[in-house]
Batch of 3 targets.
Target 1
Amino acid sequence: MVFHRAGIEVAPWIPPLVAFGISFFTSMGGVSGAFLLLPFQMSVLGYTHPSVSATNQLFNIVAIPSGVYRYWKEGRMVWPLTWVVVAGTLPGVLTGAVVRVAYLPNPKHFKLFAAAVLLYIGLRMVQDLLKKSTVANTKADAEEKFQEMVRRHRVQAVQPGEGAAQALPSVKVTHFNTRRLGYTFYEESYDIPVWGIFALTFIVGIVGGIYGIGGGSIIAPFFVSFFKQPVYTVAGAALMGTFVTSVAGVGFYQAIAPLYPNMSVAPDWLLGILFGLGGMAGMYLGARCQKYVPARAIKWMLAGIIVFTALKYVVAFFGY
């Protein structure tokens, strides 16, 4: 099948299959998988036009709602955190889209930029995972307790004689104002600065707009590593923030396309939708299975994928 805007030819079953495999695992960490789809499109499919960023964001729009729905249904959406993420990343994504088209149309330079971003995130996550900090261990207690309750819940569901299955814990917002956001999750309290999140997500939005990922793959690791939030509670907020900013990103790329008649800027709608359909199924199942996977395993998986992708870009830039 020929995708004219992308300038590539590929069997129609390959995009949804690849997107399903990537999204199933990455959605457990609050990441849509777009940051891995982009290197697949550029390196495997040969799609190197600036419009690949917009196509990547189109994938987010189609795929993310199923994952967000699952996290919402299980009571693990921190909605105030979601809206702060959206408020910060939205203007950043629009700024990043302009930078991508005007200053980084060369795929070689763009790959080096992407490598720098991913390598920083990945190494930061590895450093955090290797720490044996008392504070980190204390904050991990809620994740471990949640895992233990999930195990008991499964046993009780299979063996009714063991007693009625307990409801899984949900997030409860305790306070939210212009300065602080607080919530509880399984008897652990979390308090984070609103303006700190806003400033971070604005910068992340610029990077995400350039890279075409909506920012979720950067935001989720930052929440886990810098703000010490449990991955079981931030995944839904990161995905929802990515969805909203991706809608704006696709609309913006489509709007500025006429200003660049000699360049492919607008998304390849058919290719993006095919990727999105596979991602939709993968994210729903990933969000459903997340509670059965240890938080530390999810973090190591994200860190490993990010560092590997970044090193691959660096090696490619130097011609190896």
Target 2
Amino acid sequence: MSKPRLLNREEDSLPLDRELLVRMHDLMVKARVLEERLIQMYKQGHGYFWIGGPGEEAFNVPLGLLMKKGQGPAYDYLHAHYRQSATMLALGEEPIGAMRQMKSTASDPYSGGRNFAGHFSKRAWNVTPVSSPIEVQYVMAPGTALAQKRHGGEGISIVTGGDAGTAEGDFASCLVWSSRPGNELPLLIIVTNNKWGISTPAETQHGETHVADRGKAFNIRTKTIDGNDPINSYQELREAMEYVRKERKPFLLEANVSRLYGHSSASGANLVGNEQDCLTQFEARLEKHGLLSRKEMDELRNRYTEDMAAMARQVIQEPLPGPETIWNNIYAERK
């Protein structure tokens, strides 16, 4: 008897229901259009700096959809980095907030106009403030995970960062503190690997085959996945989250993703032609299986483009923070 032929991704049936797949596509398009609008705002002088996540939507959208959203230790904490806009939109955030932060308006919901692009925070959803120093979130995340271990329930902490930043000691500290025998923490440790550290290629820096391999020395369950496939990302994230929720132990998940517009505005924020585009690939698959037509997908993108252009026009007219607010929301004497 001959062995059954394994189906490749183009031949298989779609293992998630249509409603979820269409929702994921909608959010991926919304996130891509938002990032392109933020880049445009920067290039038009309506922002000082851009950094974001175009190319990571296939992973970041499922992450947001699967999180247990709420406030306090019974819900999930997110210790994010600056490429997480698609996760925020999947959680239910409005895109205008990211534009306000780009413009540094007083109405910026994350920092009141005092931080730059991609530095999200939302106490009501346990989204801890994104920090500019690279990868410090990895050493902060065990703190909320420890509180959740003591609290009980199913809430977990989730931390995300890039592959280059795993060279920082904070990442090693995260592995140590989350895996102590008898004191393991409910922490999902995520590395989104785009194969670059600003302008340095990963293959010249990493001795390990996969970043996730580093978790094995700590007896942490690990996996490396294709983060450019939203269906695979959804399934693997769901499995990893279920493990952390049930076992109350850490899981190290490495997702291979793309970086479509370079590192940031410091490198030009121009489209990179030789990167995989997760959105283009997903749309081809949805069209092949008859879930959405090319016309429907184009209309969706055009609608989001028009909506966000209108938001941007509104935002650029909004006031910047006044000098009297410089001491607000910091640990310093009010002047």
Target 3
Amino acid sequence: MPPMSAALPTGPGHSGPVPTNQLATNLPFLRRYARAATGSRKAGDALVCATLETALADPAALDRMASSATGLFAAFSVLWNTVDPQSAQSTDVVDQPGGSQLGRMPPLRRQALLLNQLEEFSLGQTAEILNISEAEAAALVAAARDDITREPVVRVLIIEDEPTIANYLEDIVRLGGHEIVGKAATASEALAAFQQYHPNLILSDVQLADGSSGIDVVDAMQHTSPVQVIFITAFPQKFLTGGGREPAFMITKPFREETVRTTISQTLFFGGGDG
């Protein structure tokens, strides 16, 4: 993965120069994936820590994890399946009324979708991580994408100071079948729109046009009324640190339509994501 920059790719699946500290570079993305797959920041972080602790006792495993993102994610998947074999192999559908299509997917299908669409691993890399064939990975992702087309409709507020990006997000959300209730470029506009339209979901940039923080604006909104939020930033490593104010759901710029749709489904199913 290239060093952090304005052109930072959206996930660890991108190829590029390998930095000296590959493991440290990829760990924030593994935490994001672990949270997405388990539905809990606490559970996801515990599994990531257990993965690292296991590797410390096995120099060869540590070397594989440090040498590539696929090695790190594969080690996590092996441990998760050892702790909970049903997490990846079960074909049972989650029965959670009101949950999104992501939550209703068989777990292995959900993992393949998140690896390929959220973390942007290729189908070959996804297959390697899950220890399945590339054809199986392709079939799982295709089935998962079809599932998401049946997502329940929600009301969405977009907070983004770049008009081109705001319009692109609006197009993605509308094509996903959801309703856009408003767009805002500043903190004051965002707060006014929130009070007027009472959205179910917010897509928010981190740095707004008036120099304010999208995280601070959303904090103010949530003191008024709970709302689900997805933050959008070019620098996810700055926020995926394990700190107290770490956003639960985050999309990296530049983003793809599939990434936005998958993250929306993830957010609607898992809610706050901090359990």
